[in-house]
DNA sequence: CTGTAATCGAGACGGTACGTCGGGTCTTCAA
DNA sequence: TTGAAGACCCGACGTACCGTCTCGATTACAG
């Protein structure tokens, strides 16, 4: 296969290996048009009814141009949706609970967008039988969100709301595990409520959840050094 | 339309509307064979490559027979997978934390099965553009799991690990919200770790997660009566 | 391959082997609609621009229905055009030369029809690399025309314009060779003038050609018994 | 358009309109390589499966280079095949019948070559819907062969086997018609036997055909002055 | 010896058709 | 009425060629 894995930042037009020195170069504008068209098609049609031919037509591009860049619908849609996760930020709201509430609501509003909600689950579903896609998801989605957790934790430690990371190699590993745990709890709870339970993630829920998590974190911090 | 919505317990062969009194009765064996074939196909092919024709061939049945019982692929797969959730139980392990750990590991091992993991996410993805399917999912999956949370909570209250539900209509509502929250946190975290982060849900993770949740619940119980 | 060779008379719907006793039978109307549509498309578009999709659309039929009956464009077009050769007849014009002129003009007017002219050469061209097609052409076109030559010869013999076939096995072989030769001369000359030289096959040409052939036949008949 | 019609003798590299005095000149070697590659591809693949890209690759040349010289597949293939007709000659075998037999066998052996047989019919088929191609075929194939007929006739007249052309304008016209007729009969019969009837053009057939034609010509010569 | 102008290989591009596959329906015959 | 078989319509798939285009790099001739 001549396509190489997405690093999470490179544009697809770059991904033709070592950039062949000869021949007509790939059109960067086509890249942009295709991704825009993909998002538009997701909004209108949803994952299930989105077709490669339709995306090509919307982008004013030949189908071959799509397939030259992406091996299949999964990878195209993932790339199209991944950039939306760049919008997530962690504004400083003064205290940890407010920060958590903020990120929960922000994430929830991202999931409320039709292109995100329909695409994300579908791509995860496909990734259960497609190792390459699983790797791409980690790079394009998981890592992009995890850094928010890392940042929030550091900020809370700076404020004294959480104890500093334990020293040593083992301490770093424990901190890493904590970040992973927290990330799965936050993202998992929000996604599950929004898409599986199919109930609204509103202010009240965000507040209750944040309270639960905050207390839990405090307990974890106490027990952590000894327990883990 | 001659098909009626799945209640979550009835067998598909029962669902032929007013049950015609004449003609050849539907084969119950066909039902079983179809659902078995569906699960087998999910394991081998995953959701994306599973086809109705293939399921019919595996089951030794005509496609007509499938469509007489299920309106489409989504509903068939959902029914085929839903019964797996009946395996989930809540054995009494003596204390709340152990109970939580138990249910987490049990759910994780269910999600580790290829037919569950690929089908669940796919069906949820489809449900974002299919209201009927969303309803079916609630009945077949969400409610089936939620009762475990309810049961666990009652058991913990009986043991005195959690305060009893507040009285009154408003108290019942608050209790309901708490169940929903806890359910989304547990199921969401496990699903997210298993499928999105794609990392193992092992004893250590289950223990850490349970500790986090337990502390959180205690805090919630204290603040709950006043705060919510 | 599940398709069997054309016998020249059977309808394509019959050609599904031993006629499976089960399942929905093939639509005879679809057969007719497809062949009609093929001829119409040939007239409008010519061989080169005729597409399977377009034929299907004209016939109000799915592409799969075409492919279920014919393996490719060549075979479809051949079948569609072959029936036109049934129109050729040999009216008794009283003497051999007049009969020859008649058949020449008749064949020329058949070749003047756009569907015939574009299709015939194309199919012959393809047959140079497709043995199965070559067989089909013999059955559907060559044999259909050759019988006219046989008939004309018999009639001329009855009139005493040509000597009777020599007796014996060898005589029959010689007669067969003569028929083949005459056929290739007539059909070849007309096709070549019409399509390669691209000049009109009019009364004058037909008369000249018939005179040439008639004299040649007389000479052949004289020399034949001894020379061949 | 910068391409001019083929005269039948010019090399494609000459045909760049007013021949710009500046810039890099076209590679004559490329011309040769392309035509060779085209013939090779015809042999291996036949007309139907021959592709421009494949020819370019075989010739070690870019597709651009092909299209700079030939407008399309038809014209390229025609040019590639046309030169083969230059091989046809008319060796003096002493008498008219022998000359006819010679030319028939020679033409038959040319048609037996796979590149000729597949290309000739295909190009003729295309020419039924392409006027420009028809003109090209006349120049590249028809005229090239017709001169053999003219030559053979003159030789036979010199030998006294055929009467001399009648004098006057009308006589010249009649002679022209006779050449055309003879040409279509010879070429048509051979092509038809070889490609449509798909039977061998061997010595015996050639001899029988020549006898037929010779007698016919004699009769035509007698009747001609009066009848035409 | 420097510019101008055409060529060359390479390969991306917009199109059109291909032949196949899957979804879901319909038709026939047998049970 | 159900069930197996299989034809049907529809629409998308991913591929293959077409003929065009844009690159960077050559290669001639003109000044």
UniProtKB/TrEMBL annotation, chains A, B, C, D:
<dbReference type="InterPro" id="IPR009057">
    <property type="entry name" value="Homeodomain-like_sf"/>
</dbReference>
<feature type="DNA-binding region" description="H-T-H motif">
    <location>
        <begin position="51"/>
        <end position="70"/>
    </location>
</feature>
<keyword id="KW-0238">DNA-binding</keyword>
<protein>
    <submittedName>
        <fullName>TetR/AcrR family transcriptional regulator</fullName>
    </submittedName>
</protein>
<feature type="domain" description="HTH tetR-type">
    <location>
        <begin position="28"/>
        <end position="88"/>
    </location>
</feature>
<feature type="region of interest" description="Disordered">
    <location>
        <begin position="1"/>
        <end position="29"/>
    </location>
</feature>
<dbReference type="InterPro" id="IPR036271">
    <property type="entry name" value="Tet_transcr_reg_TetR-rel_C_sf"/>
</dbReference>
<dbReference type="Pfam" id="PF16859">
    <property type="entry name" value="TetR_C_11"/>
</dbReference>
<keyword id="KW-0804">Transcription</keyword>
<keyword id="KW-0805">Transcription regulation</keyword>
<dbReference type="InterPro" id="IPR011075">
    <property type="entry name" value="TetR_C"/>
</dbReference>
<dbReference type="InterPro" id="IPR050109">
    <property type="entry name" value="HTH-type_TetR-like_transc_reg"/>
</dbReference>
<dbReference type="InterPro" id="IPR001647">
    <property type="entry name" value="HTH_TetR"/>
</dbReference>
<dbReference type="Pfam" id="PF00440">
    <property type="entry name" value="TetR_N"/>
</dbReference>
């Amino acid at each position: 296969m001549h396509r190489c894995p997405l690093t999470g930042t490179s544009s697809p037009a770059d991904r033709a290996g070592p950039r062949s020195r000869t021949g007509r170069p790939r059109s960067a504008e086509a890249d942009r048009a295709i991704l825009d068209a993909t998002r538009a098609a997701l909004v209108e049609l949803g994952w299930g009814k989105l077709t490669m031919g339709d995306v090509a037509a919307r982008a004013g591009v030949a189908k071959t141009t799509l397939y030259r860049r992406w091996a299949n619908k999964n990878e195209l849609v993932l790339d199209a949706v991944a950039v939306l996760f760049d919008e997530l930020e962690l504004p400083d709201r003064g205290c940890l609970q407010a920060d958590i509430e903020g990120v929960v609501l922000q994430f929830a509003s991202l999931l409320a967008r039709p292109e995100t909600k329909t695409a994300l689950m579908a791509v995860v579903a496909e990734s259960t039988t497609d190792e390459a896609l699983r790797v791409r998801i980690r790079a394009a989605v998981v890592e992009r969100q995890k850094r928010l957790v890392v940042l929030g934790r550091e900020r809370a430690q700076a404020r004294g709301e959480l104890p500093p990371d334990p020293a040593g190699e083992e301490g770093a590993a424990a901190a890493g595990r904590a970040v992973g745990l927290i990330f799965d709890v936050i993202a998992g709870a929000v996604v599950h409520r929004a898409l599986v339970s199919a109930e609204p993630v509103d202010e009240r829920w965000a507040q209750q959840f944040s309270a639960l998590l905050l207390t839990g974190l405090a307990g974890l911090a106490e027990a952590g050094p000894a327990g883990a």
